[in-house]
Amino acid sequence: MTAETSQTLDRGLRVLKLLADTDHGLTVTELSHKLGVNRTVVYRLLATLEQHALVRRDLGGRARVGLGVLGLGRQVHPLVREAAMPALRALAEDIGATAHLTLVDGAEALAVAVVEPTWTDYHVAYRAGFRHPLERGAAGKAILAARRPPRPTGEDAETPGYTLTHGELEAGACGAAAPLLGVTGVEGSVGVVMLADVVPERVGERVMHAAREVAEALR
Predict the structure, then answer these.
(1) Residue 97's closest CA among 81, 113, 121, 129?
(2) Where is the HTH iclR-type domain (predicted)?
(3) What is the pLDDT of residue 127?
(4) Given 3-state DSSP classes, what are the helix, strand and coil percentages for the chain, each rounded to the nearest 5?
């Protein structure tokens, strides 16, 4: 550190970089060890960064990069949508259902990009900016499922790689979503929502494929 630099700002930026390099977040204790400072300093840094939505903490106390980082550059959010659009458009047209890219915003799921199919007689109206709790709906539940450690082979299996729900956000609508994996600093999912009693069998695999395409575009 030189006389012209700020130690506090330097530590805050290091916190953001550390959080950006992990998919599962870091605890206060882990950040304290990595920064070489006491926990009180880390608490203050996180509290300040949270005020600016640059960091968020989940119910378990793990800190992650917040969506506020997108606001640091006016073109970042549009670029995320732009990168996801080809895969979402292909998914919507293929399945005949509304496709969406959803990101974590605190304890909520936030739809940041939505594509509706062009050829169907009817479909679910779902708009960018729509929010719902992570615990409800396929998009949020897929994100939460990705946070859990994988179960050993042979144990009771959940549907591998994707999540299905019915009627949790809108009566008569069902959804399928798969998490974005391997994108540093981004927690989200790709999914579809449709008016149906059950999700057709092929939709789960198709949603997983779209999530992989979006993840590749965002890396």
Answers:
(1) 121
(2) 6-67
(3) 86
(4) 40, 20, 40
